[in-house]
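Appendix B, example 12.
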Amino acid sequence: MITGSVLTLLSAVLMVWSGRNMLVPMMAPDQGSKTELDVETLADIFHQAFLLPFNTELIGGADEPIYRPANSQNERHRLCYRQDYLSSALHEIAHWCIAGPARLLREDFGYWYNPDGRNPEQQHIFEEAEVKPQALEWIFSVACGQLFSISVDNLERAAVDGSSFRQDVVNQAITWCGKDALPTRAGLFVSALSQCFGASKAGQTDALNPVHYQLSKLA
């Protein structure tokens, strides 16, 4: 739930953007963009919202995505995404926005990654854990005018027979379109993206319009 203090923080963040005169293209949120958003622009938005309040920086160029909490060698938490891939950055931000206080103190949020080639049981566990992050990544993508592709991340084996994963992601995205339904940091980031990329109408975030989240729209 987005509280009054969080909204105050967001207002301050947006005032900083105004002072910086950051120029970004305004895109129709339901169409995606033919030219992918520069991931450095995304990082700027993330840092304006979260670098100081949450002591967390977004870093590209990693061979594999990972979250590393602050330690004696690094005073900041580091959210690392793969190479310069926008989708990887959005996905890792989604995981970070969902993680609770205890998980934010553990490397990779305390999750153990089972690599590609999972059997059906392992794939089912993976899909259950990925419903919320992928639904949130989808909402972020709509907010900044980018296309979203769902991922089962298991190229060596077919998807689980009878899996409801795609529909579950749709349902979760629609649920999060409800008033104050998003996790706090996710709500902040959606509002920031929407403000920056023109996905706001009359003070409302169009990215939280359920019409965007339909099974037929999943790539």
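Confidence is low (pLDDT under 50) at residues 1-34. The CA atoms of residues 5 and 11 lie 10 Å apart.
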